[in-house]
Amino acid sequence: MGRRSILGAGLALAFAGLAGSAMAHHGWSWADAGMIELTGTISSITIAPPHPTIEVGADGEIWTVELGNPSATQRAGFVEGAAKVGQEIVALGNRDADGATRMKAVRITVDGTVYDIYPERIPS
């Protein structure tokens, strides 16, 4: 095998590994199948790709609440300025299967306004 072939094969493997990691992050495989409800106080909000996130203080811990991709989050009505640090939030979603203080929200409620991020995943 020539030098270029080895380099090309190495780059292809590296890219495949990165793509696999990205797919795992963007899917639901990291999340537990059961739903939880988290109530707390917003400590920070980031509206940026790949997923807008809200840091939430609850029971003495800081949770990372991941929302949908920016387009899905915006379609749900959650846009820049929709929530503020210090407001109470209720998040419904799937907790990290490893037990980390992280969840993927399917619905959030801020100041009485409901944002259905993944309406098809909300139990009836």
UniProtKB/TrEMBL annotation:
Organism domain of life: Bacteria
Residues making up the signal peptide according to the UniProt record: 1-24
Keyword field contains Signal: yes
This protein's name: DUF5666 domain-containing protein
Entries under InterPro entries matching the protein: DUF6152 (IPR046150)
Species assigned in the record: Devosia marina
Keyword Signal: yes
Pfam families (UniProt xref): DUF6152
Keywords on record: Signal
